[in-house]
UniProtKB/TrEMBL annotation:
It is found in: Mitochondrion membrane. Its main location: mitochondrion. It comes from Tetracentron sinense. It is a multi-pass membrane protein. One of its GO terms (biological process) is mitochondrial L-ornithine transmembrane transport. The keyword Transit peptide does not apply. This is Mitochondrial arginine transporter BAC1. It comes from the Eukaryota. PANTHER family: MITOCHONDRIAL ARGININE TRANSPORTER BAC1, MITOCHONDRIAL BASIC AMINO ACIDS TRANSPORTER-RELATED. Gene3D superfamilies: Mitochondrial carrier domain.
């Protein structure tokens, strides 16, 4: 897909920027904006379609999990080693790169993807929850605000972005935090033979600590989730507006 888009930009810029009286594009971003305005990007104001949102969001989450898994493994091991008294200073990692290299050296390339299945479950399920919540909250807030006021301002858009993004982030972590707990256990386990089955690990945690144990770290996660995702969605909404993507 990205190859087709890039080729479309290339051809249009080559044609119009070389003609004597053609439409000139300042850069690729300007060209992208004009394409979206004139050839596509306008979406009818219909209610969210879960049959489209859920599979596309889950697929995107599954793909990104292959990038997140190694980076989060390194992050978790770096964070844990500072509080684990059983890890001698001589074997501690001095940097994220050092941690990644030591993991590959001792566990092989598969080691850097330890917890990959659990990450995939977290991201695919979580993204389906996130984008379903986002689309519905955004849709119904627009309906209410547009009915109450004829003024459509950037302030209203920002408010909708804050609420839809923040609530979507809270919904994401409220559902998939147990998978994140299991992932952390899998990635930081000292024994290579430790179980990598998230359901077995969560079952063990539940037997010893109940549901509360499966949701360890919920409070700081939600405190971070609302503002972080609100900021991300507001940025996305205004970027879409600048590029001329009409969603209403």
């Amino acid at each position: 897909m990205h190859i087709v888009i890039n080729d479309n930009l290339k051809v249009k810029m080559q044609k119009h920027n070389t003609e004597a009286h053609g439409l000139r594009y300042r850069n690729a971003l300007h060209c992208t904006s004009r394409i979206l305005k004139t050839e596509g990007g306008e979406v009818q104001n219909s209610s969210p379609q879960l049959r489209v949102i859920i599979p596309s969001a889950a697929y995107g989450g599954a793909i990104i999990s292959f990038v997140l898994c190694p980076s989060e493994l390194v992050k978790c091991r770096m964070q844990v080693q500072g509080t684990d008294s059983l890890v001698p200073k001589s074997s501690r990692c001095s940097s994220p790169l050092d941690c990644a290299l030591k993991t590959i050296k001792t566990e092989g390339v598969k080691g850097i993807f330890r917890g990959g299945f659990t990450t995939l479950l977290r991201e695919s399920i979580g993204n389906a929850i996130f984008f379903s919540t986002y689309e519905y909250v955004r849709y119904y807030m627009h309906l209410q605000l547009n009915a109450a006021s004829s003024v459509h301002s950037n302030l209203i858009d920002a408010g909708i972005g804050i609420m839809s993004g923040g609530l979507s982030g809270v919904a994401f972590w409220s559902v998939v935090l147990p998978f994140d707990v299991a992932k952390t256990v899998i990635q930081t386990a000292p024994e290579r033979s430790s179980s990598r089955n998230p359901f077995r690990i969560l079952s063990s945690i539940y037997r010893s600590g109940g549901l509360k144990g499966c949701y360890t770290g919920l409070s700081p996660t939600l405190v971070r989730a609302f503002p972080a995702n609100a900021a991300a969605i507001v940025t996305w909404e205004f970027a879409a507006k600048i590029l001329g993507i009409k969603r209403d």
